[in-house]
Amino acid sequence: MPEPLVELRGISKAFGNQRVLDNIDLCIYPDDALAILGPSGTGKSTVLRLIAGLLEPDSGEIYIAGERRQGLLQDGHHHVRMSMVFQQSALFDSLTVGENVGFYLYHHTRLPEARIREIVSEKLAMVGLSGMEDLYPAQLSGGMRKRVSLARAIADNPDDTEDDPRLLLYDEPTAGLDPIASTVVEQLIRDLKERTGHAYAIVTHQNSTIERTGDRLILLYQGRICWQGSRAEAKTTDNPYLRQFLTGDVTGPIRVLDQVGTATL
Ligand SMILES: Nc1ncnc2c1ncn2[C@@H]1O[C@H](COP(=O)(O)OP(=O)(O)OP(=O)(O)O)[C@@H](O)[C@H]1O
Fold first, then answer.
1. pLDDT at residue 260, rounded to an integer
2. Distance from residue 192's CA to the centre of ligand 1 (Å)
């Protein structure tokens, strides 16, 4: 195995008295296509936010390319650039598509505006949205907004190779999309990886997204990793947690909510 790009060692995290992650060990490798699975509320987004440096663990250590991270992303320079595609696309409604995609470049580089416009239009072309620079997010469908947020995640400074995102973190990028729009986004996630060579970790509930984007799967439940392996291994494992999660069976070790919202054991 190569050296991990990201390593979480013994990570625990609670919000108030709710323990969300309980002593998690997790690695992401430089060429990984990792899908993080698990029932709602099990801590998947929390894992992404910890990796991104948007949240600090209560205990445990986070290593990025072998170097221990201290503090949050905002506290200092990080030598591995990561980008996150948020669940709700997180676009600025008052900015145009072009301004959203170029947001990082406008605020964190000294590139001239004309150059930023060129990069933005190149990234929009990569996600199949050429010529949409002047529209506002409200004028787009949910699938198009997701694609704009993908374009923003890969809008790096081409004059600075240190600036290429080496890890993309996707939080439910196909949630709420119809099957065809989901396929477009899933293929895009694959294509972007092929073109730029970054690793990614993707949180998803959708079987099509697991199938098309996850080469390696991790199943989180009640704050712990209860299964991990390749997609091929997932098809044959008799691990009851993974089987139940992938088939959507209501009977099994994963507790589900019944129609009135109470937990059934
Ligand atoms: N900033 C926060 N403050 C308080 N509680 C939080 C915070 N962030 C997350 N939580 C709680 O932690 C638990 C795990 O949240 P998280 O978003 O990581 O779950 P998830 O597995 O991604 O869920 P989903 O699949 O529904 O998006 C939830 O119960 C959530 O309410």
1. 41
2. 28
Alpha-carbon gap, residue 38 to 20, rounded angstroms: 12
Q: What's the 253 CA to ligand 1 centre distance in angstroms?
A: 21
Half-sphere exposure of 58 (CA within 13 A, CB side): 14
Q: What is the pLDDT of residue 180?
A: 87
Q: DSSP assignment of 213-258, as one string?
A: H-SEEEEEETTEEEEEEEHHHHHH---HHHHHHHHT-SSSSS-EE-
Q: From 29, 33, 48, select the one nearest 212 (Cα to Cα).
A: 33
- What is the structure's pLDDT at 57? 95
Residue ranges of the chain whose pLDDT lies below 70: 71, 73-79, 89, 161-164, 256-265
pLDDT at 85: 84
> What values do phi and psi take at 54, rounded to 5?
-95, -10
What is the reported pLDDT for 76?
58
Residue 95 Cα distances to 152, 156, 166, 201, angstroms: 13, 19, 27, 28
Output the residue whose Cα is nearest ligand 1's atom 10: 15
**pLDDT for residue 182:** 86
Let me know the angle formed at the C-alpha of 186 by 181 and 188, rounded to the nearest 5 degrees: 95
Ligand 1-lining residues (CB < 6 angstroms): 15, 20, 38, 40-46
Mutational pocket test of ligand 1: of 11, 24, 45, 226, the residue with most ligand atoms within 8 Å of the beta carbon:
45
Residue 227, exposed/middle/buried by CB under 10 A (0-12, 13-18, 19+)?
buried
Provide the ipTM: 0.96
Closest CA to 22 of 3, 38, 6: 38
